[in-house]
Structure formats: C-alpha cells, structure tokens
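Entry 12.
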Amino acid sequence: MFSQPGQGAGSAATAATAAGPAALDALKEEIDGLIVDAINNQPRSLQTRIGPSEMGIPCDLRLGYKLAGHPVCNTEDRMPWKPWLGTQAHDGMATIFQLANAKFPPRPNGDPRFLVEYRVDVGVVNGEDVDGQCDLYVDGLVIDWKFTGGDQLRKYKKNGPGPQYEKQAHLYAAGWEAKGYPVHTVAVYFLPRDQEFRQRYFWHAAYDRQTAAGTVEKVDGIAKLVAALGPAAFPLLKTANAYCQYCPWLRRGSTDLATGCAGHPDATPSDSYDPFRDLIPSENGKPDLFANLLAK
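Predicted 3D structure (tokens):
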C-alpha cells in the first residue's frame, strides 16, 4: 500500500539534517499544514445539514441557527483533532465487526450478523428526510460508539450520557425500526481515549419510540419557525448550557441574536469540559496545541 524508501533515502535524510534547524522547522510546518488542511476539510468537518448527532442538543437557539444555515461567528481556529481521532477509531471498530461477520453465516434475508455503519432515515424535518449513519446493529441492539477522555468518561459513568447522546441513540433505533428491523435496546458505548479498555462504560436503555418521535417533532417545529421568520425567530428560542464555548454561533457580549449568542447565563468553564484548559507548555514556554491534544 505504501511505497518503500529507495537506496537514496539515507542520504536524503542526512541532507535534511545537515541543512539545520530552519530546514527542519520548514518541514515540520509543511507536515503540520497537511494534517490541519486534511482534517479541516474532511466530510465530517464540512457537514452543513443537521443530523441525528445534533438533534438532541438541548439548546433550541443553537438548533435554530443550524437549521437556518445562519453564518457562524465563533471562528476561532480550533482544528477538530479529537473528532478526527474519533472518526479513525470508528473506522477501526467498523473493520473489527466487518471481519467478524465472516465467522457467522448470513441471516435468512441475506444480512450479515453485524450491520455496520448503515444509513437509516430518522425522520422528516421541514419536509426533508434526515438520515444518519448508525455505528452498529445486532439482534435488536443499536450501538453508538463514543471515544472520550478520562474526565468526561467519569461524568458519563456518574450521570449517564446526557440528552444529546441519549436522543441520538433512540433516533437511530427509530431509523432501524422504520426499515423493518426489531429494536429492543439502545446503547451508547463509551470507550476510553486515554485509558485502558477496562475503563469502558456501556450505557443502555430500553428503546423508547416516543423519545425519538418527540425529538423529531421539536426539531421540525424549530425548522419551520426559522423558515417562516428568519432571524426574528431567534429571540423566541430557549438557550441551554450546552458547551457554549464550542458553539459556532457564540459571540461573547452580543446583545443582538442576529449576530450571535452571548452564551447561556449558566454556562461557565466549571460546567462543561474544556480540553484547552491545560495546554502543555512547549520548549519556548508557549502553549503547544498539538502536544496537548496528543497527550489527552
């Protein structure tokens, strides 16, 4: 798959080293730039339509901004490094279960035992179908993988997945049900990103059709409201403490919702996890974002 270095590789490496720190810095900048550009332009980063992962967000205003296609204003240059790592881990889990299918005979309908990364329709919002890619379905169990750091993992073990992840799981289950598959349980499987596998947490609940239907109904109502009123609808929508610092429409100090939201009054750094709070100093004493993210 990957080409091997030729006989001249050693001399090339020697030449680069001999060129001095400036050449190495230039190479590092080139490598970093390629990484950042690829991650910022992956399909998940460029997604504009609302999907099941966002429909359970408790902040109605944030949903309104999203559904209206409102211009973002919180444009701090924060590469989605951790979501990208999650995407790679999801791909790895998909490979595990796709290979596992070879150990089982096909079902009578021709399906493999593990249905991996299938798209399902979860409902209709303002006349448009909303679909999403479900991580895993097996024997009536719907699973969504989440790869998370230690602080958040402890919170999930203590308090459960929260409304956004819980509703997402029920939406996927509704999508499977609509396809004619039986569903009895939804699960969010939290897997440790910076700890051992034994620290994993398997949250599960009985499938609740009404939870999914109610989520679609709420989002559909917000979509129709913003479609009818435009930015005039924003003051009519409730806010909630939903990781405000990462909201694309956060504008601190804003008094005009058409230009952005100042944030929910109860949203403080202590209320929500901020992975940028403990930046690791680099050799020059300044925070090194890449080192911090890799260490998490």
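Annotation: Residues 269-296 have pLDDT under 50 and may be disordered. Residues 44-57+80-229 form a domain with the Lambda Exonuclease; Chain A fold (CATH 3.90.320).
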